[in-house]
# Entry
Amino acid sequence: MTNAHAPDRAVDELYRIHALGLTRLALLMVGDQTAAEDGWPRLLDPRKAPGYLRVAVVNGCRSLMRSRNRARLLGVQPAPPVWSAEAATIAEEDRRALLGAVARLPRRQREVLALRYYLDLPEQEIASSLRISRGTVSSTTSRALAALARELGEEL
Amino acid sequence: MKSLEERLRDAYRSAADTVRPDAIRALPEPELRSRRRTISAEPRHGRMFAPLAAAAATATVAIAASVVVPHLTADNAQSAGHHGRHHPASSSAAQSSSVASAAGLPEYVLENNGATLQVVATATWQTVGQITAPAGQTLEAAAGAADDRTFVVAADLNMQTTCST
# Structure
Protein backbone atom coordinates (compact mmCIF):
# COMPACT_ATOMS: atom_id res chain seq x y z
CA MET A 1 0.00 0.00 0.00
CA THR A 2 2.78 2.37 0.86
CA ASN A 3 4.36 2.16 -2.57
CA ALA A 4 1.28 1.53 -4.68
CA HIS A 5 0.87 5.15 -5.71
CA ALA A 6 4.46 6.30 -5.31
CA PRO A 7 5.07 6.78 -9.04
CA ASP A 8 1.84 8.74 -9.35
CA ARG A 9 2.82 10.95 -6.45
CA ALA A 10 6.19 11.52 -8.06
CA VAL A 11 4.47 12.51 -11.30
CA ASP A 12 2.20 14.86 -9.36
CA GLU A 13 5.17 16.44 -7.68
CA LEU A 14 7.06 16.89 -10.96
CA TYR A 15 3.97 18.37 -12.52
CA ARG A 16 3.39 20.70 -9.57
CA ILE A 17 6.94 22.01 -9.76
CA HIS A 18 7.42 22.32 -13.49
CA ALA A 19 4.05 22.63 -15.22
CA LEU A 20 3.75 26.41 -14.94
CA GLY A 21 7.28 27.19 -16.11
CA LEU A 22 7.23 24.77 -18.99
CA THR A 23 3.76 25.82 -20.08
CA ARG A 24 5.04 29.38 -20.17
CA LEU A 25 8.04 28.25 -22.23
CA ALA A 26 5.71 26.55 -24.68
CA LEU A 27 3.58 29.70 -24.84
CA LEU A 28 6.61 31.69 -25.93
CA MET A 29 7.23 29.21 -28.70
CA VAL A 30 3.74 28.65 -30.04
CA GLY A 31 1.99 31.88 -29.13
CA ASP A 32 -1.17 30.85 -27.35
CA GLN A 33 -1.98 29.28 -24.04
CA THR A 34 -4.32 26.53 -25.12
CA ALA A 35 -1.73 25.11 -27.45
CA ALA A 36 0.94 25.59 -24.82
CA GLU A 37 -1.04 23.48 -22.37
CA ASP A 38 -1.38 20.78 -24.97
CA GLY A 39 2.35 20.95 -25.58
CA TRP A 40 2.85 19.66 -22.05
CA PRO A 41 3.82 16.01 -22.31
CA ARG A 42 1.82 13.42 -20.44
CA LEU A 43 4.61 12.31 -18.22
CA LEU A 44 4.15 8.74 -17.15
CA ASP A 45 7.66 7.88 -16.04
CA PRO A 46 8.52 9.73 -12.83
CA ARG A 47 12.17 8.77 -13.07
CA LYS A 48 12.72 11.14 -15.93
CA ALA A 49 14.34 14.41 -15.04
CA PRO A 50 13.23 17.99 -15.74
CA GLY A 51 15.68 18.06 -18.64
CA TYR A 52 13.59 15.42 -20.33
CA LEU A 53 10.48 17.51 -19.83
CA ARG A 54 12.16 20.50 -21.39
CA VAL A 55 13.21 18.52 -24.45
CA ALA A 56 9.72 17.06 -24.72
CA VAL A 57 8.10 20.50 -24.59
CA VAL A 58 10.47 21.84 -27.25
CA ASN A 59 9.78 18.84 -29.47
CA GLY A 60 6.07 19.17 -28.86
CA CYS A 61 6.17 22.81 -29.87
CA ARG A 62 8.02 21.89 -33.05
CA SER A 63 5.39 19.33 -33.95
CA LEU A 64 2.61 21.77 -33.21
CA MET A 65 4.15 24.49 -35.34
CA ARG A 66 4.66 22.07 -38.22
CA SER A 67 1.03 21.00 -38.00
CA ARG A 68 -0.13 24.60 -37.88
CA ASN A 69 1.94 25.55 -40.89
CA ARG A 70 0.41 22.73 -42.88
CA ALA A 71 -3.04 23.61 -41.63
CA ARG A 72 -2.68 27.25 -42.63
CA LEU A 73 -2.19 26.17 -46.22
CA LEU A 74 -5.66 24.71 -46.08
CA GLY A 75 -7.40 27.60 -44.39
CA VAL A 76 -7.29 26.52 -40.73
CA GLN A 77 -6.49 29.55 -38.60
CA PRO A 78 -5.11 29.06 -35.07
CA ALA A 79 -5.90 31.44 -32.23
CA PRO A 80 -3.98 34.73 -32.44
CA PRO A 81 -0.59 34.59 -30.70
CA VAL A 82 -0.26 36.15 -27.29
CA TRP A 83 1.95 38.93 -28.67
CA SER A 84 -0.55 40.03 -31.28
CA ALA A 85 -2.58 43.20 -30.84
CA GLU A 86 -5.66 41.07 -31.46
CA ALA A 87 -4.93 38.94 -28.41
CA ALA A 88 -4.55 42.11 -26.31
CA THR A 89 -2.82 40.28 -23.48
CA ILE A 90 0.44 42.26 -23.53
CA ALA A 91 -0.12 45.95 -23.02
CA GLU A 92 3.21 47.40 -24.10
CA GLU A 93 3.46 47.84 -27.83
CA ASP A 94 7.27 47.61 -27.97
CA ARG A 95 7.17 44.24 -26.22
CA ARG A 96 4.56 43.02 -28.66
CA ALA A 97 6.67 44.24 -31.55
CA LEU A 98 9.75 42.54 -30.17
CA LEU A 99 7.98 39.22 -29.63
CA GLY A 100 6.40 39.49 -33.04
CA ALA A 101 9.87 39.91 -34.54
CA VAL A 102 11.05 36.88 -32.59
CA ALA A 103 8.14 34.87 -33.98
CA ARG A 104 9.37 35.58 -37.49
CA LEU A 105 12.85 34.21 -36.80
CA PRO A 106 13.79 30.70 -37.93
CA ARG A 107 12.73 27.95 -35.55
CA ARG A 108 16.13 27.22 -34.04
CA GLN A 109 16.80 30.88 -33.36
CA ARG A 110 13.45 31.20 -31.58
CA GLU A 111 14.20 28.17 -29.44
CA VAL A 112 17.68 29.32 -28.48
CA LEU A 113 16.43 32.79 -27.54
CA ALA A 114 13.60 31.41 -25.38
CA LEU A 115 15.86 28.98 -23.56
CA ARG A 116 18.52 31.61 -23.00
CA TYR A 117 16.55 34.77 -22.28
CA TYR A 118 13.48 33.28 -20.65
CA LEU A 119 14.82 30.23 -18.83
CA ASP A 120 18.34 31.70 -18.42
CA LEU A 121 19.89 28.35 -19.26
CA PRO A 122 23.65 28.15 -19.73
CA GLU A 123 24.85 27.41 -23.25
CA GLN A 124 25.70 23.83 -22.42
CA GLU A 125 22.17 23.08 -21.23
CA ILE A 126 20.67 24.77 -24.25
CA ALA A 127 22.92 22.66 -26.45
CA SER A 128 21.78 19.53 -24.65
CA SER A 129 18.10 20.45 -24.86
CA LEU A 130 18.24 21.17 -28.58
CA ARG A 131 20.77 18.44 -29.36
CA ILE A 132 23.17 20.86 -31.00
CA SER A 133 26.73 21.86 -30.15
CA ARG A 134 27.60 24.61 -27.73
CA GLY A 135 29.26 26.52 -30.55
CA THR A 136 26.04 26.36 -32.55
CA VAL A 137 24.14 27.77 -29.59
CA SER A 138 26.53 30.70 -29.42
CA SER A 139 26.47 31.47 -33.13
CA THR A 140 22.71 31.00 -33.36
CA THR A 141 22.18 33.42 -30.50
CA SER A 142 24.37 36.02 -32.17
CA ARG A 143 22.60 35.64 -35.49
CA ALA A 144 19.19 35.84 -33.84
CA LEU A 145 20.02 39.02 -31.96
CA ALA A 146 21.49 40.56 -35.10
CA ALA A 147 18.36 39.67 -37.06
CA LEU A 148 16.15 41.18 -34.37
CA ALA A 149 18.18 44.37 -34.33
CA ARG A 150 17.95 44.62 -38.10
CA GLU A 151 14.21 44.10 -38.11
CA LEU A 152 13.69 46.67 -35.36
CA GLY A 153 16.06 49.13 -37.01
CA GLU A 154 18.48 49.15 -34.10
CA GLU A 155 22.15 48.61 -33.57
CA LEU A 156 23.39 45.90 -31.25
CA MET B 1 17.57 52.72 -23.21
CA LYS B 2 17.77 49.08 -22.25
CA SER B 3 19.79 46.72 -24.38
CA LEU B 4 18.03 44.43 -26.80
CA GLU B 5 18.83 41.47 -24.57
CA GLU B 6 17.30 43.13 -21.51
CA ARG B 7 14.20 44.09 -23.44
CA LEU B 8 13.94 40.56 -24.73
CA ARG B 9 13.99 39.22 -21.17
CA ASP B 10 11.30 41.74 -20.20
CA ALA B 11 9.15 40.82 -23.17
CA TYR B 12 9.44 37.10 -22.44
CA ARG B 13 8.52 37.64 -18.80
CA SER B 14 5.58 39.78 -19.82
CA ALA B 15 4.28 37.13 -22.20
CA ALA B 16 4.97 34.30 -19.78
CA ASP B 17 3.09 36.06 -17.00
CA THR B 18 -0.07 35.86 -19.09
CA VAL B 19 -0.15 32.19 -18.07
CA ARG B 20 -1.47 32.40 -14.52
CA PRO B 21 -0.68 29.60 -12.07
CA ASP B 22 -4.38 28.96 -11.52
CA ALA B 23 -4.80 28.38 -15.26
CA ILE B 24 -2.67 25.24 -15.20
CA ARG B 25 -4.84 22.19 -15.53
CA ALA B 26 -4.66 19.63 -12.76
CA LEU B 27 -3.33 16.21 -13.59
CA PRO B 28 -5.98 13.51 -13.76
CA GLU B 29 -6.47 11.50 -10.60
CA PRO B 30 -4.10 8.52 -10.35
CA GLU B 31 -7.01 6.12 -10.87
CA LEU B 32 -7.96 7.82 -14.12
CA ARG B 33 -4.36 7.82 -15.30
CA SER B 34 -4.28 4.08 -14.68
CA ARG B 35 -7.52 3.62 -16.64
CA ARG B 36 -6.07 5.59 -19.51
CA ARG B 37 -3.06 3.32 -19.56
CA THR B 38 -5.29 0.28 -19.63
CA ILE B 39 -7.56 1.63 -22.33
CA SER B 40 -4.87 2.81 -24.66
CA ALA B 41 -3.10 0.29 -26.84
CA GLU B 42 -0.53 2.77 -28.05
CA PRO B 43 3.15 2.32 -27.20
CA ARG B 44 4.07 4.02 -23.95
CA HIS B 45 6.30 6.70 -25.42
CA GLY B 46 3.71 7.42 -28.07
CA ARG B 47 1.09 8.15 -25.47
CA MET B 48 3.28 10.77 -23.84
CA PHE B 49 2.85 12.93 -26.87
CA ALA B 50 -0.80 12.18 -27.51
CA PRO B 51 -1.88 15.63 -26.26
CA LEU B 52 0.25 17.22 -28.95
CA ALA B 53 -1.77 15.47 -31.59
CA ALA B 54 -4.91 16.46 -29.77
CA ALA B 55 -3.97 20.11 -29.87
CA ALA B 56 -3.55 19.90 -33.57
CA ALA B 57 -6.96 18.42 -34.20
CA THR B 58 -7.74 21.08 -36.73
CA ALA B 59 -4.45 20.44 -38.40
CA THR B 60 -5.34 16.80 -38.63
CA VAL B 61 -8.42 17.76 -40.57
CA ALA B 62 -6.41 19.93 -42.88
CA ILE B 63 -3.51 17.56 -43.35
CA ALA B 64 -5.75 14.80 -44.47
CA ALA B 65 -7.81 17.11 -46.59
CA SER B 66 -5.74 16.15 -49.57
CA VAL B 67 -7.82 12.99 -49.69
CA VAL B 68 -10.72 14.28 -51.70
CA VAL B 69 -13.36 11.87 -52.84
CA PRO B 70 -15.69 13.35 -55.46
CA HIS B 71 -19.32 12.25 -55.47
CA LEU B 72 -19.13 10.93 -51.92
CA THR B 73 -22.20 12.18 -50.12
CA ALA B 74 -22.46 12.68 -46.40
CA ASP B 75 -24.84 9.76 -46.21
CA ASN B 76 -22.29 7.62 -47.94
CA ALA B 77 -19.74 8.79 -45.43
CA GLN B 78 -21.99 7.66 -42.62
CA SER B 79 -22.55 4.29 -44.14
CA ALA B 80 -18.82 3.98 -44.66
CA GLY B 81 -18.30 4.04 -40.92
CA HIS B 82 -18.44 7.72 -40.01
CA HIS B 83 -21.10 8.96 -37.68
CA GLY B 84 -22.82 12.01 -36.30
CA ARG B 85 -23.88 14.06 -39.31
CA HIS B 86 -23.22 17.69 -38.54
CA HIS B 87 -26.06 19.87 -39.74
CA PRO B 88 -25.20 23.51 -40.38
CA ALA B 89 -28.07 24.58 -38.15
CA SER B 90 -26.99 22.55 -35.15
CA SER B 91 -25.01 24.23 -32.39
CA SER B 92 -22.39 21.64 -31.74
CA ALA B 93 -21.34 18.12 -32.49
CA ALA B 94 -19.42 16.37 -29.78
CA GLN B 95 -17.01 13.71 -30.92
CA SER B 96 -16.26 11.25 -28.19
CA SER B 97 -13.85 8.40 -27.84
CA SER B 98 -13.53 5.59 -25.37
CA VAL B 99 -10.77 7.41 -23.54
CA ALA B 100 -12.64 10.69 -23.53
CA SER B 101 -15.78 8.99 -22.38
CA ALA B 102 -13.89 7.73 -19.37
CA ALA B 103 -13.24 11.34 -18.45
CA GLY B 104 -16.87 12.30 -19.12
CA LEU B 105 -16.27 14.66 -22.02
CA PRO B 106 -14.45 14.50 -25.32
CA GLU B 107 -11.31 16.62 -25.31
CA TYR B 108 -12.39 18.50 -28.42
CA VAL B 109 -15.73 19.30 -29.97
CA LEU B 110 -16.75 20.99 -33.19
CA GLU B 111 -19.03 23.99 -32.99
CA ASN B 112 -20.86 25.21 -36.04
CA ASN B 113 -20.62 28.96 -36.56
CA GLY B 114 -22.45 28.95 -39.83
CA ALA B 115 -19.67 29.61 -42.30
CA THR B 116 -16.97 27.89 -40.23
CA LEU B 117 -16.50 25.04 -37.80
CA GLN B 118 -14.76 25.98 -34.57
CA VAL B 119 -12.61 23.38 -32.81
CA VAL B 120 -13.16 23.90 -29.10
CA ALA B 121 -11.07 22.40 -26.29
CA THR B 122 -13.51 21.24 -23.64
CA ALA B 123 -10.92 21.66 -20.88
CA THR B 124 -10.97 25.43 -21.30
CA TRP B 125 -13.87 25.98 -23.71
CA GLN B 126 -11.49 28.01 -25.81
CA THR B 127 -11.46 27.85 -29.57
CA VAL B 128 -8.18 26.32 -30.67
CA GLY B 129 -8.78 26.57 -34.37
CA GLN B 130 -11.34 26.89 -37.05
CA ILE B 131 -12.12 25.18 -40.30
CA THR B 132 -13.29 27.21 -43.23
CA ALA B 133 -14.78 25.58 -46.29
CA PRO B 134 -12.68 25.91 -49.44
CA ALA B 135 -13.77 28.67 -51.80
CA GLY B 136 -17.05 27.87 -53.46
CA GLN B 137 -17.86 25.02 -51.11
CA THR B 138 -20.11 24.64 -48.11
CA LEU B 139 -19.37 22.56 -45.06
CA GLU B 140 -21.96 19.83 -45.12
CA ALA B 141 -21.23 17.25 -42.45
CA ALA B 142 -18.72 16.42 -39.73
CA ALA B 143 -17.91 13.41 -37.62
CA GLY B 144 -15.21 12.38 -35.20
CA ALA B 145 -12.97 9.35 -35.32
CA ALA B 146 -12.61 7.10 -32.31
CA ASP B 147 -9.30 8.67 -31.32
CA ASP B 148 -11.09 11.96 -30.55
CA ARG B 149 -8.40 13.79 -32.46
CA THR B 150 -9.41 13.24 -36.04
CA PHE B 151 -12.44 14.91 -37.51
CA VAL B 152 -13.99 14.09 -40.83
CA VAL B 153 -15.49 17.06 -42.61
CA ALA B 154 -17.50 16.91 -45.81
CA ALA B 155 -17.85 19.96 -48.06
CA ASP B 156 -20.39 20.38 -50.82
CA LEU B 157 -19.28 21.66 -54.24
CA ASN B 158 -21.55 22.08 -57.29
CA MET B 159 -23.66 18.96 -56.89
CA GLN B 160 -20.62 17.07 -55.66
CA THR B 161 -19.56 16.44 -52.10
CA THR B 162 -15.92 16.22 -51.19
CA CYS B 163 -14.95 14.32 -48.10
CA SER B 164 -11.91 15.31 -46.10
CA THR B 165 -10.58 13.18 -43.29
Remarks:
- The mean pLDDT of chain A is 79.
- Residues 6-30 of chain A form the longest helix (25 residues).
- The CA atoms of residues 105 and 147 of chain A lie 8 Å apart.
